[in-house]
Design brief:
mainly alpha; 5 helices
């Protein structure tokens, strides 16, 4: 399957168990910790449109605090997904852009977004049925 393939199948993927005693940790937990948080995904989505300055990112990502954005871009930079460039101007200008590795991740993020849009109604209906069948079990 190509990295740009976004077709959705109904059969489960052939996945080996990860992190169980009889299977060595494949590293997926570490990666999911980074890209699985909502702020990292939103930064990656925003940077998919091209380089952005810090304030542009902050304005584009509703609800993110300055501190959380700082931590998020630092973590993404450390993981090699984002490149921070400081320009020798007064005052210094800084921009952020996706690295080649980070850009490769955008195809997966798009596939997940497409899947969520396709299945939004089915998930909402399943939640509604569950909540009716299990009153008082608020698990949100």
């Amino acid at each position: 399957m190509s990295p740009t393939h976004t077709g959705v199948t109904t059969a489960p993927a052939d996945l080996a168990p990860c992190g169980q005693e009889d299977h060595p940790d494949c590293g997926i937990r570490d990666i999911l910790d980074r890209i699985g948080d909502k702020w990292s995904v939103l930064v990656i989505v925003e940077l998919a449109g091209g380089p952005r300055r810090f304030r542009q990112l902050q304005r584009a990502i509703d609800g993110i605090s300055q501190r959380m954005l700082t931590l998020t871009v630092r973590r993404l930079e450390r993981d090699g997904l984002v490149l921070r460039t400081v320009y020798p101007t007064v005052p210094a200008q800084v921009d952020y852009r996706l690295t080649e590795t980070g850009a490769g991740l955008t195809h997966l993020v798009k596939a997940l977004a497409d899947w969520s849009l396709t299945h939004r109604a089915a998930i909402a209906e399943a939640r509604h049925r569950y909540d009716r069948a299990h009153p008082g079990h608020d698990i949100r």
